[in-house]
Design a protein that fits this description.
This protein is α/β, with parallel strands linked by helices. The chain is built from ten helices and eight strands. The chain binds uridine-5'-diphosphate and magnesium ion.
């Protein structure tokens, strides 16, 4: 008789005390309904300032399937996720999921089924999302444009929610970069993949922990980590502006040689051109700086997170 597969659910939590009781209830109900799998939950407390860590610890004491990794401060979602995945090297598969129940845990058995059918990576694809206002517009734009900008195809309408088999997880845990963009890296590691579909709900309780500026940074992280397009665009802009300058030069030289009088005014034109070209140059330096800053972060080789405490691990 073969042993049941060992599957861990990895969930970063930052100030999620309001949703945790619901999360625990839905996970335990799910586990009880699917006894054919040896389930674990790895919750990462990403430096929460509320009762998140205490609630998780109580749950760990009641139910040995639950585990806590507490980070020494808030390191951000990507790093918290990496901290959790690093604890799961001996799992057969891991499910990556948000704590706020926007990702319905009830979808996990479908992912496990797809994985058992041979997919190394299973992606949860959103059929719809319920967020509203600016956040929604932002998400829509990001998913529409991002895919066409970067050098890698990231599956549309996928986020963190998904399953990684043992080999994909090992590959992910080996990636050395400091700036981590999980959907991009998951795409980068390759392997066979399958999709399952779901409707994304509003968070069950509490406030979104990732502010809009954080999400914009995250989007830029994705762009700069997976594309040299900003640099290439600058080269194109440079070639174009230089070409226009050269043509104008030729035009005036020819006029001069033909003896056509050249007007001595043109102050407005000069100022406009000067500011325009100055602006393009500053944008260029800014884009270079983005890459330089990233190179600096990478060469420093600082760890992505610091674990303060682990509860429930042997
Ligand atoms: N989160 C985290 N660290 C942070 C911010 C958020 O671990 O600094 C977690 C949060 O607890 C949740 C997940 O990341 O489990 C997604 O966060 P949120 O719901 O705020 O983001 P959104 O759904 O708006 O992308
Ligand atoms: Mg959320």
């Amino acid at each position: 008789m073969s042993r049941p597969p060992h599957i861990a659910i990895v969930t970063p939590a930052f100030n999620e005390a309001a949703v945790l009781p619901q999360l625990f209830a839905r996970l335990t109900a799910l586990f009880d309904a699917h006894p054919g799998v040896a389930w674990s939950v790895v919750l990462i407390d990403d430096g929460s300032r509320d009762a998140t860590a205490a609630l998780i610890e109580t749950q760990c004491a009641q139910d040995p399937r639950f585990h806590l990794v507490a980070l020494s401060r808030n390191f951000g979602f990507q790093n918290a996720l990496a901290a959790g995945l690093a604890q799961c090297a001996d799992m057969d598969a891991v499910v990556t999921m948000d704590a706020d129940l926007q990702d319905p845990p009830e979808l996990i058995p479908d992912m496990v089924a797809a994985w058992r059918d041979g997919a190394e990576i299973v992606l949860a694809v959103r059929r719809s999302r319920q967020e509203s206002g600016l956040r929604r517009v932002g998400f829509e734009l990001f998913h529409r444009w991002f895919g066409s900008l970067i050098d890698l195809s990231i599956e549309r309408n996928t986020g963190t929610f998904g399953l990684l088999g043992r080999n994909a997880l090992a590959a992910f845990n080996q990636l050395p970069e400091v700036h981590r963009f999980f959907p991009g890296l998951r795409s980068w590691v390759g392997f066979s993949r399958a999709e399952v579909y779901y409707d994304r709900k509003e968070r069950a309780a509490g406030q979104p922990g990732q502010s809009l500026p954080q999400l914009i940074r995250y989007a830029l992280d994705g762009l700069f980590s997976f594309s040299h397009l900003p640099l290439r665009l600058l080269t194109y802009a440079g070639v174009f502006i230089a070409g226009v300058g050269f043509s104008i030069g030729v035009f005036f030289i020819v006029r001069r040689l033909l003896g056509i009088e050249v007007a001595q005014t043109g102050f407005t034109t000069l100022v406009t051109l000067l500011l325009f070209i100055g602006g393009v140059q500053l944008v260029g330096i800014g884009v270079l700086g983005e890459y330089l800053g990233r190179i600096y972060d990478e060469v420093k080789r600082r760890p992505n997170y610091i674990v303060k405490r682990r509860v429930g691990f042997d």
